[in-house]
Write a structure and sequence with these properties.
Keywords: Membrane, Transmembrane, Transmembrane helix. The protein has 76 residues and is mainly α. The chain has 1 helix and no strands.
Length: 76
């Protein structure tokens, strides 16, 4: 009986450690997705500000610089 209780306790501790590890991995994935979204946002902002002349000329900087809704409205 004591051995069964000890085994059950060890199993519970292992499950708890596995849950903590899973939560840490989920947090790491969330941080990675947040950094990826921030990088994409910075790339799009740099792209729009870099390609303000796209209203008159073609620009293919990362192919997101079709500045129709970005900086070119500030230059009229």
């Amino acid at each position: 009986m004591l051995l069964l209780l000890l085994l059950l306790r060890m199993l519970l501790v292992l499950l708890l450690l596995l849950l903590i590890l899973l939560l840490l991995l989920l947090l790491l994935l969330l941080l990675f997705l947040l950094l990826l979204a921030l990088l994409l946002l910075l790339m799009l902002l740099f792209c729009c500000c870099y390609c303000c002349y796209c209203c008159f000329y073609s620009c293919y900087f990362f192919e997101c610089c079709y500045c129709l809704y970005c900086c070119c409205y500030y230059f009229y």
